[in-house]
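PROTEIN DATA CARD
Card holder: Steroid 5-alpha-reductase DET2
Chain length: 260
Origin: Carpinus fangiana
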Amino acid sequence: MASDQSLFHHSLLALFLIGPPTFISCLFLQAPYGKHRRPGWGPTIYPPLAWFLMESPTLWLTLLIFPYGLHSSNPKSLVLISPFLFHYFHRTCIYPLRLHSNTARRNAAGAGFPVVVAVMGFGFNVLNAYLQARWVSQYKDYEGDGWFWWRFFGGLVVFWGGMAVNMWADRVLVGLKKEGGGYKVPRGGWFELVSCPNYLGEMVEWLGWAVMTWSWAGLGFFLYTCANLVPRARANHRWYLEKFGEDYPKARKVIIPFLY
Ligand SMILES: NC(=O)c1ccc[n+]([C@@H]2O[C@H](COP(=O)([O-])OP(=O)(O)OC[C@H]3O[C@@H](n4cnc5c(N)ncnc54)[C@H](OP(=O)(O)O)[C@@H]3O)[C@@H](O)[C@H]2O)c1
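Structure generated from the sequence above:
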C-alpha cells in the first residue's frame, strides 16, 4: 500500500512537472501530425489506428485498475468515473471509426501519423489513466466530502458543455476532410469565434473534470491539456492565416472567444 501511495505521488508530481516543458516546447515545435506534419519523424501509421492505439490505455488501464480500489463498488466512485470513460470511449473507438469512414483516400501520401508521436501519446495516457482511476477508486475521501454531489453536478455541466463543443467541432472538421480537395476554412457556430473550438471544448471538459473530482490529479490533467493544446491552437491559427490570408475571418481568435 505504501509503495502504491509513493507511485501515486510520484506520478502526480510527474504530471505537474511535464506541463511547463510541454508548453514551452510546443510554442516552438509542433507535434508533426495533421496540419503540421513534416518529413523526418520516422515511420508513420494509419491515423485512425494511431488514435485508437494511443488513447486505448484510458479504457483498458482504467478498467483494469479501478476494481482494485477501496471504493470500487461505492456508487459515488462509479458515477464519478463514468464521464471519463464516456469521453474516452468516444475518443478511442468512435472518433477513429469516424476518421476512417471519412478519409477519402486512406493511403494518401504523407497522411500518416508518426509512430513516435503515438508512442508519446500512449505514455501520457498510461500515466494519466493510472492517476485518474486510482484517485477515483482508491484515494478520494467520499465520506468526508459533504459537497460531493454539488461538485459532481456543477462539474458535469461544464464537462458536458465542453464535450458538446469538442464533438461538434471535430465532426465539422472531419466532414470538411471528407469533402476532399485539401484543407478549407471551417465556418459557422464556434468556428466564427475561434480557430480551434475542438481544443477549446477539450479544455473545458477537463476543467469540469477537475471540479467533479476536486483533486490534484484532475487539476493536473486540466493544466496539462492547456499546456498541450493552447500552443497547438496558436500554431493552427497562424497556419490558417498564412494559408488563407485575406480569406480568413479577421475577428476569429485562437482559442478563447473574444480574448485570445
Ligand atoms: N487532451 C489532449 O491533450 C489532446 C491532445 C491532442 C488532441 N486532442 C483531441 O483530439 C481531437 C483531434 O485532435 P487533432 O489535433 O487531430 O485535431 P485537428 O488538427 O483539428 O484535426 C481533426 C481532424 O480534422 C481534419 N481537419 C482539421 N482541420 C481541417 C480543415 N481546415 N479542413 C479539412 N480538414 C481538417 C484533420 O485532418 P488532418 O489529420 O489531415 O489534418 C483531422 O482529421 C480533438 O478533439 C482534440 O481536442 C486532445
